[in-house]
Amino acid sequence: MTTLLDIMDRHGRLHANADGIAATPIPGLMFFRVATPSGVTHAIARPLVCLVVQGAKQVTMGTQEYGLGAGDSLLITADVPIVSQITKASHATPYISLVLELDLAIVAELVREMGPALASSADPVRVDPTDGEVAAAALRLLQLLDRPAALPVLQAPLIREMHYWLLAGRHGAAIRRLGWPDGHAQRVARAVALLRAEFARPLPVSRLAEAAGMSPSTFHQHFRAATSLSPLQFQKQLRLIEARRLMAAEGASASTAAFAVGYESVPQFTREYGRLFGVPPVRDARAAREKARAA
């Protein structure tokens, strides 16, 4: 019988890029197949669930560290800064995981049908064993990759089913907050979408607060509660993460990357880059190029 691991390993071999990321034609769904332990990766994650089926990974948010291995799920219910590292992987048994970005429209629709949730921890990151129903729905969804003619017809109901089992399972109460009509999570999400779309431009807090439908002081409070960062810190991390990608993936110089993401001062960019990543941008870019050549 075909398993989730079988499908992901096979498609990963065929479609994963140099970083081990395999995109799929299913919106919001990708998986990872990585044959060696990785370096540290910085990101501002979107709300998502990650199912690990082989290998192990370490994720840090602030001072909290989470370890997950085969059979575990990582749930992220807010746009938060995380640092991650694959800790167990080899050519014989690569790290393999599935990532599904949560669709807030589907969550909101299901919450209306399923009713209110029980109280739960407000932690935006958590790790738990994967529910059997979630894994089974993921398997049926990935089986469509071998039947492309069925994708337009069946992917939407299967994605909805997977969201249902996430809401019905141990992660449910945390996810349901994302679906509260006009709740704080949805309001902050509108401001986050604006930041992600226009991070290279000056964005005054008043404009972000207006997008969220809050006063500036209330917005600042709820934004930090949801993301662990102030709006300015959030924008700064988006800029630095994109600058790092431009240097590593597109060969941009430090100054070109700095100006492309909205910095007006290269020395300021260099200081803030080193503060976040622990190494100056020129040295970091050189190391990334050397790693790519070795691969």
Automatic annotation (TrEMBL):
Residue ranges annotated for the HTH araC/xylS-type domain, each copy included: 189-287
Keywords, in A-Z order: Transcription, Transcription regulation
InterPro entries tied to this protein: Homeodomain-like_sf (IPR009057), HTH_AraC (IPR018060), RmlC_Cupin_sf (IPR011051), Tscrpt_reg_HTH_AraC_N (IPR009594)
PROSITE patterns tied to this protein: HTH_ARAC_FAMILY_2 (PS01124)
Domain of life: Bacteria
PANTHER family xref list: ARAC-FAMILY TRANSCRIPTIONAL REGULATOR, TRANSCRIPTIONAL REGULATORY PROTEIN
Stated name of the protein: AraC-like DNA-binding protein
